[in-house]
Amino acid sequence: MFETSGSHAILLNPVEMRILKFIKPKSQTEKKISKVVEIDALVLSPVITDLILKGYLEIVRRRRFYFFSREFCTITPEGVSALEKARSPLEGLVEMVRNRALDALNSIAAGSPALKAAVFSARTLYKVAKAVA
Hints:
Order of helices and strands: HHHEEHHH
Number of strands: 2
Radius of gyration: 19 Å
CATH topology of the largest domain: Arc Repressor Mutant, subunit A
Structural class: mainly alpha
CATH class of the largest domain: Mainly Alpha
């Protein structure tokens, strides 16, 4: 009804968005994704398969030892663009402010080794608090 010519809406449900956001920085196994997203692995598997069929994810097998290997889910460039298009304007604004604040903090901390250590410890503390919450 309100479709513009040459573009189509990216339809991602909230679970798919959470999966893509979690996988974007680093490839993960389905078991790890199910723990973080808090969905049973049996329920999560069809969602991952659907994302693979849409072209947003791919499975990569990595060997650990000669007989053992693991399958990791990685996001594709199409998945990254779909995630960006499905993101709300408020999330985009928050991400932009966050990136600029981190750039400013890094430029300020570049001059002093003590300040670098303080920024590193604060960043680590933030990541730990974010993981716990």
